[in-house]
Design brief:
The complex is a heterodimer. Chain A is mainly beta. In chain A, 0% of the residues lie in helices and 49% in strands. Chain A has strands at 5-7, 10-13, 19-24, 31-37, 44-50, 53-56, 65-68, 75-79, 88-95, 103-104, 108-112. Chain A starts with a strand and ends with a strand. Chain B is an all-beta fold. In chain B, the strands form 2 sheets. In chain B, strands 2, 4, 5, 9, 10 and 11 form a 6-stranded mixed β-sheet that branches. In chain B, strand 4 (29-37) and strand 5 form a beta hairpin. The chains are: A mainly beta, B mainly beta. Chains A and B meet through strand 5 and strand 9 of A and strand 5, strand 9 and strand 10 of B.
């Protein structure tokens, strides 16, 4: 596709449910980043992939957050046992290489009730 | 998490006026970036700065990478209604352990009155 796509665009979950958020990066982009953006705040780094290798997961807030990119293309961010504080927009970005220009997707807005 | 100190938080200006916003950090960055985010969309890159002291323009936008490498500013000249949105600064830390992650400011919300 022409840009980074994310699905679903909106997700409502009950507290305690598991959710999976998908990111389709731009074809050929080696690097993939996940960010969390709380309401009224700037994005905060969660994790970074280079191809299928997860090289930095220092931003994941707890062990309930898990990300994967098994074939070095599509990535999934999974949140287990969701809590209200997980409510945020989850942004995915990809770039040709690690320090190249990053292109952001539209985000998935997660609301945990 | 770590965030940059961005100001002002919001601005409400008349069309045609110039706008200035800035970011400061206690850490040294090797790259400064400025993004604009529209509602329901991801941030879009406006200007990238890679060298201390660098001054770069993109149309009506001008940004500078501070000499100390701990600050940056963005100016928008002759604002128009489509400049409305949230502007974010973002920095990339120096150091060999850097994986390319960006640290963002809290954002400046710009509203332009026609």
């Amino acid at each position: 596709g022409a840009g980074v796509s994310q699905s679903p665009r909106y997700k409502v979950a009950k507290r305690g449910q598991d959710v999976a958020l998908r990111c389709d990066p731009i074809s050929g982009h080696v690097s993939l980043f996940w960010y969390q953006q709380a309401l009224g705040q700037g994005p905060e780094f969660l994790t970074y992939f280079q191809n299928e290798a997860q090289l930095d997961k220092s931003g994941l807030p707890s062990d309930r957050f898990f990300a994967e990119r098994p074939e070095g293309s599509v990535s999934t961010l999974k949140i287990q046992r969701t809590q209200q504080e997980d409510s945020a927009v989850y942004l995915c970005a990809s770039s040709l290489a690690q320090f190249d220009r990053r292109f952001f997707g539209p985000g998935t807005r997660l609301t945990v009730l | 998490g770590q965030q940059l100190n961005q100001s002002p938080q919001s601005m409400f200006i008349q069309e045609g006026e110039d706008v200035s916003m800035n970011c400061t950090s206690s850490s040294i960055f090797n790259t400064w970036l400025w993004y604009k985010q529209d509602p329901g969309e991801g941030p879009v890159l406006l200007i990238a700065l890679y060298k201390a002291g660098e001054l770069t323009s993109n149309g009506r936008l001008t940004a500078q990478f501070g000499i100390t490498r701990k600050d940056s500013f963005l100016n928008i000249s002759a604002s128009i209604p489509s400049d409305v949105g949230i502007y974010f600064c973002a920095g990339q830390l120096s150091g060999s352990s850097n994986t390319g992650k960006l640290i963002f400011g809290q954002g400046t919300t710009l509203q332009v009155k026609p």
